[in-house]
Design goal:
six-stranded mixed beta sheet; alpha/beta; five-stranded parallel beta sheet; 407 residues; 14 strands
């Protein structure tokens, strides 16, 4: 299929999913070029001061030997052991990711991919600076940011600098002294509002949901110290207690057999919009929560915004703001992956909302083109929204590529 100069595999992205995939490919002795700035999505698209919603048990980047867990990193740094009630600061997780990269994937190239095009002899990969080369397989591990979703009524404000998505900010302190309407009811919305409030901004949460929810503190342990009746009723898993969470985290290979509408619903709602248990005290009683409200109109003049809101039983409100921050999540649609050639995007068979339909090894309908991370959640379920999904994904992708290439 390819000439002798073709690279066996290119991994696009060096976040947790890209790094885990590369580490597992190394174990299979499959040479790969790994392209991207390590942990850049976490460093540049998540605000300073935030914490991971996932527990420490669910925040391990997978390596083949299981020796590079978050606990291993902390031990190497001389930090004490932690339990699942320890909220992980974003800067600690970034340091962990960098440590994992140095030890498990030292070959990462800090290069920017500008294009991937399908050719008869493989994929032509183009890099900023002009380099091009042919790769027999490409793994797209591009993270969340390309899929940032902003409500249509806010779209005209984006170019004016009057609205943005939470993924646009590494530091919310830039809004100090300003009035910010935060749209959403999930962890991103609630934590962003808390950070804004603590940075001296006036934050107001606007949510369609009838009320804001917060999770319960996790069990101190997922295993033997829990009473047997409790373990039978709600067995533990990396996604939390409960049989459904066990199924989604331990047998994601069964998820593709569910109907399309069911899969879309579960990806959206399992561990859906809510705040972490440790966030409640920073939100409730600290800032206004307009629940049950949706934006019905937006007016702007001289940089000032007036949001017309429709609430319960037809009630209306007007909210004045200097900026609107959309904490409205992500929607997978590979048409948003501009670095993929248009013809290549058209050739990929789609599922819900434009998400790629994938094989059991995460391969798309285009032979040799793989998707992992959030891009694969429509096929394999909500575990692919979290770091703990790296074990299943990296193992499947690497075994599939190794088998296809005869390693």
């Amino acid at each position: 299929m390819t000439g002798p100069a073709a690279v066996p595999v290119t991994v696009v992205g060096a976040g947790p999913y890209g790094l885990a995939t590369a580490a597992h490919l190394r174990a299979h002795r499959v040479p790969a070029r790994v392209l991207g700035e390590p942990m850049d999505g976490w460093r540049d698209a998540m605000p300073a001061g935030m914490y991971l919603k996932s527990t420490p048990r669910a925040s391990n980047i997978s390596d083949p030997d299981g020796t590079h867990r978050l606990s291993d990193f902390r031990a190497g740094e001389g930090l004490p052991p932690i339990g699942d009630r320890y909220p992980i600061p974003i800067d600690e997780f970034i340091r962990y990711g960098d440590w994992f990269q140095r030890r498990c994937v030292p070959e990462v190239e800090r290069a920017v991919v500008t294009g991937v095009e399908y050719r008869r002899d493989g994929f032509q990969v183009s890099l900023r600076g002009g380099e091009t080369y042919v790769s027999r397989a490409v793994v797209m591990a591009t993270g969340l940011r390309p899929y940032a979703r902003v409500p249509a009524e806010l779209a005209p404000l984006l170019g004016l600098g009057l609205a943005s998505h939470t993924s646009d900010h590494a530091d919310l302190a830039v809004f100090a002294g300003r009035r910010v309407a935060v749209i959403g009811a999930g962890q991103s919305a609630l934590e962003s509002a808390a950070l804004l409030n603590e940075a001296g901004a006036t934050a107001t949460v606007v949510a369609r949901a009838p009320r804001v929810l917060f999770g319960d503190p996790p069990e101190s342990d997922l295993s033997a110290d829990r009473p047997l009746p409790v373990r039978l009723a709600k067995p533990g898993s990396t996604l939390g207690p409960g049989w459904s969470h066990v199924a989604f985290s331990r047998v994601p290979q069964g998820f593709p057999y569910l109907p399309d509408k069911t899969r879309a619903h579960l990806v959206r709602t399992v561990l859906g919009p809510s705040g972490a248990w440790w966030l409640r005290d920073r939100v409730e009683g600290c800032l206004p929560l307009l629940t049950g409200y949706a934006i019905r109109s937006v007016e702007q003049a001289d940089g000032q915004l007036r949001l017309g809101l429709r609430g319960p039983r037809g009630r209306t409100e007007t909210l004045e703001a200097d900026h609107v921050l959309a904490a409205t999540g992500y929607g997978v649609d590979i048409d948003r992956l501009d670095l993929l050639d248009e013809g290549l995007r058209r050739a990929v068979r789609r599922g819900n909302g434009g998400a790629p339909r994938l094989s059991g090894t995460f391969e798309s309908s285009v032979p040799g083109l793989y998707f992992t991370g959030l891009s694969a959640a429509d096929t394999f379920g909500p575990v692919l929204r979290f770091v703990c999904g790296t074990a299943f994904a990296a193992g499947r992708v690497s075994r599939g590529i190794a088998a296809a290439q005869g390693h």
